[in-house]
Amino acid sequence: MALILPPQELLDAIVDELRLDRPSLVACCAASRLLRPRACKHLFRDVTVHPKSYQSLYRLVRSSRDIPRFILVLRVYGGEFAGSDQWAKDLALLFRALRNVKELRVHSMIWGSFLAKHKPSLHEALISMPITSLHLDRVCFSNSVELFSVLSQIRSLKRFSVGTFISSHSVSQLPLPSPAIPLTLRELSLDMENSAGVVQCLLSQPHPLIYLQNVKVLEVHGCSNYDVGTVRSIVMGCPSLEHLIFGQSHLCTSFKRTFLLQFDPSAALTLAGRNGTLDVSHLKYLTVTILDCSTQLQWWVDMFLLLKCECRIEVVTIVVEMRGWGHSPGSAAFFQAARWRALDRALTSPAKAFLRKVVVKLSTLDYSVSEDLLKPFESTIHKSCSSLREKGVLQVVT
């Protein structure tokens, strides 16, 4: 009597449960042809290429027809061997075989005119990959113009993020195309601390180096009070922007400005100056990350109070990254109820009529902060933001 095979959906569900167990996934690949495709999907979805370990992946891809189609995320670490001729040759062949890669993350490598001149096959293989997302960190270019010229050749690019930007400050000897990112770009992420050259290029006048008119999501990290004017200029250069994301920042409010807002808002606005404020009234979504520091929360409270025009923001998300303090959590200055009451007043003013959801996410950065310790903070927020709670728009997530 022939054995009745279980439904493929059931087999796929079983393999999905093992997606974090690599030894079991390898065993599934070897055990059955029915389990192999799903196991390979999890095993090879996200792969890393390094000078010391790339050859095993290179041989596997060269010997298998189906493995390349499973690779969607590729991480490339250049390192000290990135100048090797064999490394560049093998990588070019490897990249040409990976036609389904959607996300490319490059770390510690020389790109730009140097790569185009000395390793043209590798350069061509990189820019011809069908990626929609590109992340660069500690990747060296002659200058930021050269970076944008490379980006302009990746026609399918929709998301670009840059961490630490390294510039050799040398003049490129190669003719560069017009430095404009393709109009397909929808998301842009910048590190204000470590990619100053890139940000300066964004703001170059009279001819902007990239087109931002279709960017809908802008994410900034490491922003200080001195960078607010720069972020404001970038926001103004993105007419289609819908979502502004502030990652970890160094924003710190002025106590004098906070005081003046209670009695003389016009004087507070004058004190802040044009570059000290951020107009987010035309956005749909705002996400901010703050550390356990009361002045960071107060900075955003002041910013909302300074918005006197109609604000079209629909969803505000506040991510609170918390650390352990070694004492009762109620002693943390950050969770002063007055700060949250001020936020409640700022977000329930008539100008915020479009607001339909305020999400506060309490995230721990220290294992000593347990969920039990987060409950008093959650209670403080619920009690202090009474107006938001009564409207049914407040959601606190721990």
Question: Which helices and strands, and how do they pair?
Answer:
Elements: H1 8-17, H2 22-31, H3 36-43, E1 46-49, H4 54-63, H5 67-70, E2 73-77, H6 85-97, E3 103-110, H7 112-118, H8 120-127, E4 133-141, H9 144-151, E5 159-162, E6 165-167, E7 187-191, H10 196-202, E8 217-221, H11 228-236, E9 243-246, H12 255-263, H13 265-272, E10 285-291, H14 294-306, E11 315-322, H15 337-347, E12 357-364, H16 371-384, H17 386-391, E13 394-397
Parallel strand pairs: 1-2, 2-3, 3-4, 4-5, 4-6, 5-7, 7-8, 8-9, 9-10, 10-11, 11-12, 12-13
Helix pairs in contact: 2-3, 4-6, 6-8, 7-8, 12-13, 12-14, 14-15, 15-16
Task: Describe the structure in brief.
This protein has two domains: 41-196, Alpha-Beta Horseshoe (Leucine-rich repeat, LRR (right-handed beta-alpha superhelix)); 251-398, no CATH class. Helices cover 39% and strands 19% of the residues.
